[in-house]
TrEMBL record:
Pathway: Organic acid metabolism; glycolate biosynthesis; glycolate from 2-phosphoglycolate: step 1/1
UniProt GO MF annotations: phosphoglycolate phosphatase activity
Organism: Pseudoalteromonas luteoviolacea
Name of the protein this chain belongs to: phosphoglycolate phosphatase
EC number: 3.1.3.18
NCBIfam families, A to Z: HAD-SF-IA-v1 (TIGR01549), HAD-SF-IA-v3 (TIGR01509)
Top-level taxon: Bacteria
């Protein structure tokens, strides 16, 4: 397929980072006297930004408890950010094939599009030494988070390409729905954080089992 630029999600697509989010969330929950949660639960809850993750932790469920007090939520989010800042990049790792794959895609303009806050995103990219691969970095505090298409459209604008000439690569429903709303094709990867939902039901153009599978899709352009 012919594309002029590639947009990548971060957590669950390029980087396995759930361990440090799990640690930070449990420390924050303990700070506000709430029970800790499991690694598996956090793996199903990530993908919609810090505020949503903390609310899910306080609710101990993917569905957020509407009765959570604003004061409690604000306090827990603040504590999460303190703990997460100390942990970012310490327990994260690139998925197999990511570093080689990014080099192989060196000729294509690339943007990182993540719901993660910019400060934490830049810290993680520096730790993993992959910031150099991206021409543009768009983060959750730049506008409405995925599944809203705003961040994807912003990335395309900053890359100087039309949305229909870009392709999104992500691991979740949010990535797929954002791309579809932006009217751009999407490659979904099955190894990340899909919140327990089969990605095939959202009809991505491609569904890949490992990162290296995306390289021939993007390099064999017609």
């Amino acid at each position: 397929m012919s594309v002029s630029g590639v947009l990548f999600d971060l957590d669950g697509t390029l980087v396995d980072s759930v361990t440090e989010m799990h640690l930070a969330l449990n420390l924050a929950l303990s700070d506000v006297a709430f029970p800790v949660v499991s690694h598996g639960q956090v793996q199903q809850w990530v993908g919609n930004g810090i505020d949503v993750l903390v609310k899910r932790g306080l609710s101990c469920d993917l569905e957020i408890n509407p009765d959570l007090s604003d004061t409690l939520v604000t306090q827990a989010i603040a504590r999460f950010k303190v703990h997460y800042q100390a942990l970012v990049g310490e327990y994260a790792a690139l998925y197999p094939g990511v570093e080689v794959g990014l080099y192989e895609l060196g000729a294509l303009p690339k943007a990182l599009v993540t719901n993660k806050n910019r400060a934490f995103t830049l810290q993680l990219l520096q730790k993993l030494n992959i910031a150099k691969h991206f021409d543009v970095i768009v983060c959750g505090d730049d506008g409405n988070k995925k599944p809203d298409p705003y961040l994807l459209k912003l990335a395309c604008k900053q890359l100087g390409i039309a949305t229909e000439k870009a392709i999104m690569i992500g691991d979740s429903k949010s990535d797929i729905l954002a791309a579809q709303s932006a009217e751009m094709p999407v490659i979904a990867v099955n190894y990340g954080y899909n919140q327990g939902e089969p990605l095939s039901q959202f009809n991505p153009q491609y569904l890949c089992e490992q990162f290296s599978d995306i390289i021939p899709i993007l390099t064999n352009q017609n």
